[in-house]
Specification:
With about 160 residues, the chain is of the alpha/beta class. It folds into two domains: about 50 residues; about 100 residues, Beta Barrel (Barwin-like endoglucanases), CATH 2.40.40.10. It is built from three helices and six strands, in the order H-E-H-E-E-E-E-H-E. A six-stranded mixed β-barrel has the order 1-5-2-4-3-6. Strand 3 and strand 4 form a beta hairpin. The radius of gyration is 30 Å and the shape is rod-shaped. The termini are far apart.
């Protein structure tokens, strides 16, 4: 009987040990999952937040030969402006590293926020300072926009 009692206690100890190991494994898994979720959440938050560049000069243009050269309806990325509804912006060479082609940008003027623009074009190489050129549908819109200092952010 004493031998049976010792055997039962050993089995109970093994069961407790197995349960403790399983609980620790579950805890470690939960911690790992939590850290992974936080890493993903942090990465998504970083990707979603606009990344301000600074104040830059902004002008507006239309897709006509006098402003864009021989092929005014085709952007630097090959996008045909006649077949898209994208809001297009061109960037100066000095901004290309901060706003690479296909980047989504937000432009903040003195009186409004212009959302959902995409970098699809380059400005003339004569423009050596940080600048953006916003594509407008009409010359009247472009003239109305004029030349402004704006903040440009990537998101």
């Amino acid at each position: 009987m004493n031998h049976d009692l010792q055997e039962i206690k050993r089995v109970q100890a093994v069961i407790v040990w197995v349960l403790v190991v399983m609980a620790l494994a579950n805890l470690l898994f939960a911690i790992r999952q939590h850290l992974q979720d936080k890493r993903i959440e942090s990465q998504e938050k970083t990707e979603r937040q606009p990344q301000p560049i600074s104040f830059v000069e902004a002008t507006a243009y239309t897709s006509c030969e006098e402003e864009c050269g021989d092929n005014p309806n085709i952007t630097a990325t090959g996008l045909d402006l006649r077949t898209t509804d994208l809001k297009v912006v061109a960037v100066s060479r000095s901004l290309e590293q901060y706003l690479p082609m296909h980047s989504k940008v937000r432009i903040i003027t003195d009186d409004k926020i212009l959302d959902n623009y995409v970098v699809e074009d380059k400005m003339s190489s004569r423009i050596t300072w940080p600048a953006v050129d916003i594509l407008m549908k009409t010359k009247a819109e472009a003239k109305e926009f004029g030349n402004q200092e704006v903040v440009v952010g990537r998101y």
